[in-house]
Amino acid sequence: MINNPAQLTGMVLNGAHGIYDVHTDDGILRCTLRGKLKKAFAQANAAKPVGKTRQSQQRNNKYDTQNQTERVERIEKRDSSENAPPTRLSVGDYVKIRRLDETTGLIEEILPRKSELSRMDAGSTAKRLVQQTLLANLSQVVVVFATAQPEPHFGLLDRYLTICESAQLSPVICINKADLPHSSYIEEEAKLYSQLGYQVIFTSIQTQQGIDQLHDLLKNHTTLFTGPSGVGKSSLVNAIEPGMAIRTGLVSDATGKGKHTTTGSQLYPLSAGGWLADSAGIRALAAWNITPEELAWCFVEFRPYLGECLYGDCAHLDEEGCAIRQAVNDGLIHERRYRSYVRIYTGEER
Ligand SMILES: Nc1nc2c(ncn2[C@@H]2O[C@H](COP(=O)(O)OP(=O)(O)OP(=O)(O)O)[C@@H](O)[C@H]2O)c(=O)[nH]1
Ligand SMILES: [Mg+2]
Ligand SMILES: [Zn+2]
To answer: Is residue 145 within 6 Å of ligand 1 at its C-beta?
Structure first.
């Protein structure tokens, strides 16, 4: 018997076509959105003008008069200033629901997000930007690449890192398929990222290398596994929490039923405490909605030099007296990382 049919609070575990599984203290309920909420979402998401948001414009203007210490503050403040209720429901969202019966409920309200990781949706056009939130309320990101199959693309890794830094989420770099033969430049690149302060873990589901280490990192966090398709995100999630039976490419190979590529995000409870999200592989990644000033800040090794350039509005491309370029010439900033910055800045594909 249900004594109190009033509101429950829960977390969205997955969702597709308007149906969401929500985790509550009373179990998992299959929910739909209340009509009023659906309408409000539709209105909020109707044709948005293209360009920077008002908030990012303000940040932009403020930047001119700020020095480096204030800049850190500016980025840290961003989360709370943008803490409005979301206009789309995403996996990881906390919601208030009205229970309908033993197994179903109605989502009545979405609570403001503490954090989120978004990307521009593939359905976006020049007139209409569609933002897709990969996961809400996450505290950590594991960016997964493979030593081979597919060959890693470190310029793409820099894009993932940029997006994590801009969302103030600490990324862990996981290089999976360590068992496969691969060239030694991968270890060299891994060393570069370690020197930048990122934790880099080599893993293999074949030899179990690094799995325990990865497992320990996840305790009491809400972690998103992201990275290109086929690198082994779902396989790693399965290796960490056996019994979750997440469909992977391997299963499909064995049954011959075609590729079981993950679609959308899905949250799983960890027996050691915390939550883990598997997400679909991302082919191309644009670091969007990041102002040029923010972009330079997202490259952690640029930070000591920011504010040192001759011109306050230096984009660090070919300006005179640029401290970043000087640091590249002096070998203090790695050239390949600098090239990644330029590519993202100029909007080049990869
Ligand atoms: N040799 C080797 N193969 C692996 C390893 N991890 C995963 N694989 C294989 O790589 C393929 C892809 O694995 P998935 O886990 O489906 O990859 P994914 O990143 O989830 O891919 P998407 O869902 O498409 O984004 C499967 O055939 C796995 O068996 C590993 O450590 N070593
Ligand atoms: Mg997958
Ligand atoms: Zn500069």
So the answer is: no
Q: How far is the CA of 301 from the centre of ligand 3 (A)?
A: 13
Mutate to test the pocket of ligand 1, among 248, 253, 259, 268 (most ligand atoms within 8 A of CB): 248
Higher pLDDT, 262 or 49: 262
Residue 211 CB contacts under 8 Å (≥ 6 apart), including other chains:
203, 205, 236, 239, 240
**188, exposed or middle or buried, with CB in 10 Å at 0-12, 13-18, 19+?**
exposed
**pLDDT tens per residue, range 17-76:** 889 999 999 889 999 999 988 888 888 877 554 444 333 333 333 333 333 332 222 222
Which domains, and CATH codes, for the chain? 7-45+87-112 (2.40.50.140), 49-84+116-350 (3.40.50.300)
Phi, psi values for residue 109, rounded to 5°: -155, 145
Question: Which residue from 336, 333, 345 is spatially nearest to 296, judged by alpha carbons?
Answer: 345
Looking up tokens 């009205």, which residue turns up? 98
